[in-house]
Every structure is written in structure tokens, then in C-alpha cells.
Amino acid sequence: MAQKISDFRKLSKKFLRNGTAILGIALLSFFIVIAIFAPFIAGENGDNPYQIPRVSWSSKPIAPTAEHPFGVIGGRDIFYGVIWGTRTAFQLGLIIASCAAVIGILIGSVSAYFGGWVDEVLMRIVDIFMSIPFLVAAIILTTILGKGLDKVMMALIVFGWMSTARLIRGNILQAREEQYVLAAKALGQKNFIIIVKHIIPNTIFPVVVQMSMRIGSYVITAAGLSFLGIGAEPGYADWGTILSYSRNWMTMLDQSWFAIVFPGTAMVLFVLAWNLVGDALRDIFDPRLRN
Amino acid sequence: MDKKPLLKVQDLKTYFHTDDGLVKAVDGVSFEVYPGETLGIVGESGCGKSVTSLSVMRLLDEKGEIAGGSITFNGEDVLAIPEEKMMKIRGNDMAMIFQEPMTALNPVFTIGYQIIEAILLHQKVSSEEARAMAIDMLRKVGIPEPEKRVDEYPHELSGGMRQRAMIAMSLSCNPKILFADEPTTALDVTIQAQILELMLSLQKEYGMSIVMITHDLGVIAELAERVAVMYAGRIVEYADVVTLFKKPKHPYTWGLMNAIPKIDDEKEILYNIKGVVPDPLSFPEGCRFNTRCPLAKDKCFTDVPPLEEFEKDHFVACFRINELEEMIKSEREGELSAK
């Protein structure tokens, strides 16, 4: 146990020396704080806090003022949308990425472990799913399922698990041939334990890193769907929804820039945070990179 | 030797079903290992030495199949033991060390963790006791500061240290027999000598048998008591180490011995056995050495030479043992004229 603690200290020390990792963690903590304290930062809109309050009935954008620091578009307060949108972003990213990862790990490891025709069938299914362009598939599925953030999540999960499946399958196939697996067998270890103890820890890091990096990109995709008007319902506190309001004002950026800049910045920083954290996670988890 | 063999392999045949066809990697190999002795299995890469040891431990992958023969270990028929019992035997009674100590240790765990895992698998001790045993084992294999090293990852150790850790792991449950598959090939020459010395001293301490698989005749000379020379999946000569080095009777063994550079030799070109090892997918009919053997004629191309006792405890599989002297003479002349 004492060793684990000193190990942790060693790691955190190394981690703190890594500039990009600190930036990533700082950004992510910043978003987490905003998400947690959203009601105190932007207030709470009655019984449905995820609905951006209507502050004006005119569709004309209102430039930032003291009362509405990020301005108003489509009659909605952008500040409220961006702050509460942080919660939405976390929900979207974490749920989609973890569900997709679980499905991918399950299918990938079953495929690699059983091999033969099971592998063949599953990998062809992966190929079929992969052959459909991701965004097109997501658009079609959300259109079929109907409006709402849960439908967006479902669509992105359905078309988001394949790369994880391939990644973990490839890694397991590779790790299975490693000599330490043979060595563990030579020591009389059981097959199941070899998989759990020796193969998974050697194959899971890339998946974790991939997952954390994809959290950001899922948020972007969801925002894209919202922007196209097939994502979240109108007025939902979601970065993409705010962007969709600015659609009609695209040609008049001098009047509507704030509707793009603020949620856009939030999105860029959010993606950046997860990417940096992904890199940092790889450095922490993978002992092979600990030198 | 009148003692009962610990391991008796008889007419072992291991075939691999590859996409290109059937590979008879081991084809009728027989040998015995007595308690506390070291048997060397020597041969070129691809001659089936590693496959032999993997067969004995029943660690072949799906493509490999033991197609015939028998393996008796400690009085039990290894091929009839159910897999579950085999798991208990592996690590506990039979252990193995590998060529590449970097890849044979799991990079994500500390070496201590891996040794403890092996101990806990076979012995009923608490994890604290197992840790103490692991440290003790690391000390025995000559790792300095074992209390500290036990918590280090494989990549933090040098190649020699890793191989020592690997040996510690294999010996942690005090096996009766240790298969050492080219344990020193990946190491520096000086480290090689240290590891061999370590293995000898551990063998004395624990009294285990060692099957030393190597292509390095120097290692054999240092460690083994008896030697089986393998060529293309078969044993071609089988004798005690002194006889083998002094009076090799098979043309292949002689070629191997003659290919070793000697310090007092003034050869400019080292001797080499002509030709290459035949493709395992299509081994020649008859004696498998016939494609490279200067003596090969008639029967050598049609019949498989049996491994016969030439002198007491000296087995040779060759039809032309009596003509070897002439061959040596002509080969020597050939070497001289090449100068």
C-alpha cells in the first residue's frame, strides 16, 4: 500500500511538471466548476433549468450588455445558454463516450477472444457500420428517432463504437502473442485471469485515451446536429442550439458575432481540455511511458 | 544411468497446421531428463527445440498439435493430464524461462507483483509472506537491493537484471524441472556468463533438472551434462557433453563443432556447413541432413536413419558413421585449398 502511495506521488510529481497536462486539467476543472455552480453563476430558470429563459420577443440579436453579458439571440440569453450548456456538454460527452466504449470493448474483446467465425461476423458488422459516413448516419438516425438530446446521444452511440471495437480487438490480438502471456501460462495461470490481468491492462490504455479525446468530438458533433436543427429542442441550454439561432444572422456578423464567439470558444476549449487530458492520461496510465 | 528419469519423451511428434500446409516441427524426438541433471538441446533456429519444450509443457497454440509419441513426467502421462491439473503442474513442477526478458515480463506490473502472483498461484501463503518470499527470491538471483527492486517495473531494470527477475519468477515455486529457452541469447557476453553461473548455483541449491535449449555450443559446454543435437525436427546425436565435443559422430554435429572459431586457430575463413536448413514445409525424404551432407548417398535419400546406440550412451542417427573420418579429412583439405 505504501508503495502504491509513493507510486502515486511519483506520478503526480511527474504529471505536474508536464505543462500541457496542467493546462488540460486546469481547463477541465474550470468547466467542471462552471457546470457544478451553473445555478449560482447564471441563475436557474424556474422548473426547467435546461431551458434558456426568453428575455426578449424580438428575433433581433442584442449585443452584450451588463444584464446579458454574452448578448441575446433569438430572444434567448446566451450567457445562460453557455453556462448551463456546460452541463449538457458533459452529459453528452461522458454518456456517449462511455456507452460507445463499453459496446466497443465488449464487441472487440469477444471478437478477439473467440476468433474464427465470431470474429469474422462481428468485424464485418463493424465494417458495415463504418462504411456509412458518421455524420450522415447520425443525421438520418436522429431524424428517424425525433428531436431531443437523448435521441442525439442514441444516434451517436449507435455509430460511435466501431473504432473502439477495432482498437481493442487489434490490441488484444497483439497482446495475446506477447511472451509474457506465454510466460503467465507457463506459470500455470488460468486463461480468464490472463485476459483480465495481463491482456486487458496492456490494451485498455489506448481505449481510455481515445475515449477521453472523443468526448470533445462527440460534443462538437452533437452541436453540429443541433445547429442543423435536428438536435436539441429549441431553447435547450446547449452550445449547438445557440449556434443554430445565429444561423439566420450569419451574413450580418457585425450584429451577431457574440452568438458564435461565446459558445464557439466554449466548444474549442472543451475539446482542447479533453484532448490534453487524454494525452496526460496516457502518460499516467501506461507504465511503459514512465521513463 | 540407473536412476529413474524425471522426464521421458518418446517419439514425440508435434505438427503445426499452417495456412501453407503441415509443418512437422518435431518429428519423432526421444530423450530423458534425470533428476538434478542438465540436458542441453542444441540446434539451429527453427529445428524444433523450442517447440519440443512447449509440447512438454502443453503450451502449443491452436495451430500446434501433438500428433504422436508420449511424454512421461514424474511417472505421469503428461498428454493424458486434464488441463486443469496441468495448470497446477505448470509453474509448480515445470517452469520455463524465455529468451527475451523484456517481453516475457508484463510491462504494466512491477516485477515483485509478477513474482508474487506466481507464488500466490501455487502456494497457500498470505500476500505479505509472498512478498517476503519474492524479495528473498530476488536476493537469491543476485539482484542488489531487492527490497527496492521488487517495486520496480521491468523497463527500469537492465537486460541482465530482467533475466534474473524472470529466473526468480520461474523458480519461486521450486519446480522440479526448468526449461530454459535460450536464456542468454539476448544478453551481453559478460552477463551471459553471470546468468549461467547463477543457474548452475541455483540448480545445486534446489536440485532441479534443467533443459537448456540453445544454439550456443559454448552455453552447452558450460552447463549441460548430456546433449541432444537437433536438426530439422529430429535428434541426430545424443550423448554426454564430453563425448559429443571430443568425438562427434554425426556429420552435422561435426560441422557445428568445426564451425566454432578457436583462439589458437589461424583460419582466415571460418568453416561453415554448406547450404541452408531445409524448408520445414517440405523436409527432404530420408535423412533430413541429406541436402547438406557431403556423405549423403543412396539410402540417405530414401530411409530415415534411426537413432542408434553407437557406443554406450552415445546415440547417433546416421548411416555413414564409419565414413565420417574420411569426410573430416576431405573437408579439412578443402579448407586448406580454400586458403
Question: Can you tag this structure with a few keywords?
Answer:
heterodimer, A: 291 residues, mainly alpha, MetI-like fold, two-stranded antiparallel sheet, 12 helices, B: 339 residues, alpha/beta, Rossmann fold, 2 domains, eight-stranded mixed beta sheet
Overview of the molecule:
The complex is a heterodimer of chains A (291) and B (339). Chain A is mostly helical. Chain A has one domain: MetI-like fold, CATH 1.10.3720.10. In chain A, 74% of the residues lie in helices and 1% in strands. Chain A contains twelve helices and two strands, in the order αααββααααααααα. Chain A has a two-stranded antiparallel sheet. In chain A, α4 runs parallel beside α8, α6 crosses α7 and α7 packs across α10. The mean pLDDT of chain A is 85. With 339 residues, chain B is an alpha/beta fold. Chain B folds into two domains: 218 residues, Rossmann fold (3-Layer(aba) Sandwich), CATH 3.40.50; 108 residues, no CATH class. Chain B is 34% helix and 23% strand. In chain B, strands 6-7-8-3-9-10-12-11 form an eight-stranded mixed beta sheet, sandwiched between helices. Chain B has a four-stranded antiparallel beta sheet with strand order 2-1-4-5. In chain B, a hairpin with a 2-residue loop joins β4 and β5. In chain B, α4 packs across α5, α5 crosses α7 and α7 runs parallel beside α8.
